[in-house]
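Case study 2.
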Amino acid sequence: MGDRRERGEGSGGASQDRPLRVGLLGYGLAGSVFHAPLIAATEGLRLDVVSTASPERQAQARAEHPQVRTAETAEAVLAAADELDLLVIATPNKTHVPLATAALEAGLPVVVDKPLAATAAEAEQLAALAEDRGLLLSVFQNRRWDNDFRTVRKLVEEGALGDVQRFESRFERWRPQPKGGWRESGDPAEIGGLLYDLGSHLADQALTLFGPVVSVYAESDVRRPGAEADDDTFLALTHASGVRSHLWMSATAALLGPRLRILGSRAGFVKHGLDPQEAALREGLRPGADATEWGVEPESHWGHLGAGTSPQTGGGERVPTLPGDYPAYYAAIEQALRSGGQPPVTAREAAAALRVLEAAKRSAAEGRTVRIEPVRCA
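Prediction:
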């Protein structure tokens, strides 16, 4: 098979007059609930083939997407790389690096579910490979398009808070019984635990808002009987800008805190509740295909902006929540493939978040604050 750039099919060389053909590796939670529905809902993309070793999941994929082909292995999909324009990797974490490497070497642009890798060094190596091949490599950080994060980002950019001093962000759950599986495995090779699961989102959001991190302090525990990987973790980040981010991720939170609280020199903002898109996707709703407005939440869930008051006692003004917009990720991927522009999330950005997570892991193990040295360009 010739190099895709030679055939004019690499990043930026895709034909403008046909849908881009997408292969999806994995049809578990990430593949079936997030990637497949969002790809199918994106104008200009066509979900062409899904690989999963499970006959039940193969049947599920064909039932949910009647036009799709199925394959038992990733290798079978990679063997026909010249029939695709994009490969999406939604397999267990430990397979992300080898599969992304194989796809890039086969000449395919790639989207990888988070986390891209176990280490920043591996992420940088993948980024360098993609750049050398002239291929798109992006990471599915869908939480950048959560309704609450989009709203906070707008408030920060408009200066509604003044100079931001502290950012608090939580993904908390009450799951007292472990579910098992690779996501909760204590085997380091599986890259399980909440630090690399929910922490990938929290660190990415903090970096997106406030830029590079210079130091990390972390506390990480395994609290549930029978659990193997971290299920209750806290990160304190100091950004080069001076902002401090406090991030919580927990499966053991009996009472949930605010999803976001951000404090500035002029005002603060607090928001409770989760973005509705994941729940909608799990229920089988699809963007653009259902009567409900996608990503919109009721006014009763809006956050509060104010100073010197508490929303619990009626203080502050309600701020309309911007709609959540997961479809924007794959719309941007489609445009980047056709134009040769930057993807909505880059592998270098993923590497920066992984440096934070690696520092957090070391901090929790050693009981100290860990500094992150600036990345020096060659």
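The radius of gyration is 21 Å.
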